[in-house]
Design goal:
This protein is α/β, with parallel strands linked by helices. It has two domains: 212 residues, Spore Coat Polysaccharide Biosynthesis Protein SpsA, Chain A (Alpha-Beta Complex), CATH 3.90.550; 112 residues, no CATH class. Strands 1, 2, 3, 4, 5, 6, 7, 8, 9 and 10 form a ten-stranded mixed β-sheet that branches. Strand 2, helix 2 and strand 3 form a beta-alpha-beta unit. Helix 10 crosses helix 11. The radius of gyration is 20 Å and the shape is globular.
């Protein structure tokens, strides 16, 4: 059985998918690479099949009618045979040295006395034109180089957050939690990170810069203008996160705090982009989002609303909205996201 299954959702990815796949091949026979062609109109499937033919037993080319990023991740998970599972987007890649260390940790944990649910590594914002590459690390919050539980974690700072890029989940846990992403929807990577976290009991933090998160490609889903244009998809994901945490009644205190932290980050992004759209309809959608959260779970709403970011994105009036966006721009410039 493979140690790690990696799903690579691809849609018209012929220009950059080779860099991604070549980096994943460094994992050797311990890894299976599931290249999911999501109904591409270019040579994506042809390239995937070339790699499948060249690396039988490691690369598997999977074709499906277009279902969007979420549908491609669902397909990858359904085909995964590895004990652990990760998603790597086709324009991103993994660092070779860190990759080998991560696989070694997984192999060690598989043979150990405690089951590991989640391996956490750092990720790097590979932003086009940026001289400084921001690294998302967790040194101040998580114990290093051992399996630990929720009792041992510290708080995450406002500038630190878990994303799909930093997480490798146990495959069986993903099946147990019933992870199924909405189709034809962007930004579902937030659900990949968020939903299974409520089922996690054991974690391991490996302080290496594994995932290289590429930002700056024209038309990329996380570019600001594109996100504003697809705000309804962002809101759908945001509301699904609200629904999920509202249903969780037996979380460890620290586990709940981490999930609230993730929800605060995503709700802030939704709110700021709705403000930036500058229409009465978008302003109303922002109000509706916060009302939705309040109706789903008043305790969750209160925690998110009174947080620093919750207060920042709800400043009153036109002047308040301008301050909210200006503050977001400063943070964006410092940390290099979007």
């Amino acid at each position: 059985m493979k140690v790690l299954s990696i799903a690579v959702p691809c849609y018209n990815s012929q220009e950059y998918m080779r860099t991604c796949i070549e980096s994943l091949l460094k994992g050797g026979d311990d890894v299976e690479i599931l290249v999911v062609d999501d109904g591409s109109k270019d040579d994506t499937l042809k390239i995937a099949k070339e790699y499948e033919e060249k690396y039988p037993g490691i690369v598997k080319a999977i074709h499906q009618e277009n279902k969007g990023h979420g549908g491609a991740v669902n397909t990858g998970l359904a085909h995964a045979t590895g004990l652990y599972f990760k998603v790597v987007d086709s324009d991103d890649w993994l660092n070779e040295e860190a990759y080998h260390k991560a696989i070694d940790v997984l192999k060690k944990c598989i043979g150990g006395p405690r089951t590991l649910d989640l391996l956490i590594c750092n990720y790097v914002y590979e932003k086009v034109g940026a001289k400084h590459k921001t690294v998302m690390r967790y040194r101040t919050a998580l114990p290093k180089d051992k399996i630990f539980g929720w009792d041992e974690v510290g708080p995450l700072g406002n500038s630190h957050y878990l994303l799909m890029h930093s997480m490798i989940y146990r495959t069986e846990l993903l099946h147990t939690c019933g992870l199924e992403l909405p189709e034809h929807t962007f930004y579902v990577d937030n659900l990949v990170a968020f939903v299974p976290l409520s089922f996690v009991n054991t974690m391991y933090y490996l302080d290496v810069n594994l995932y290289r998160y590429y930002i700056g490609r024209e038309g990329q889903s996380v570019s600001e203008n594109v996100m504003i244009g697809r705000i309804d998809q962002q809101l759908l994901v945001n509301k699904l996160m609200i629904d999920h945490i509202a249903q969780q009644k037996n979380l460890h205190k620290n586990q709940r705090n981490y999930m609230l932290h993730m929800l605060i980050m995503i709700t802030t992004v939704s709110s700021i982009f709705l403000i930036q759209a500058k229409t009465e309809e978008s302003y109303q959608k922002k109000v509706d989002l916060w009302h939705y959260m309040k109706a789903a779970d008043r305790k969750v709403y209160f925690c998110v609303r009174v947080s620093l970011l919750g207060r920042l994105c709800n400043l009153p009036g036109k002047g308040g909205r301008q301050v909210s966006v200006a503050a977001y721009k400063v943070v964006q410039k410092i940390y290099g996201f979007n």
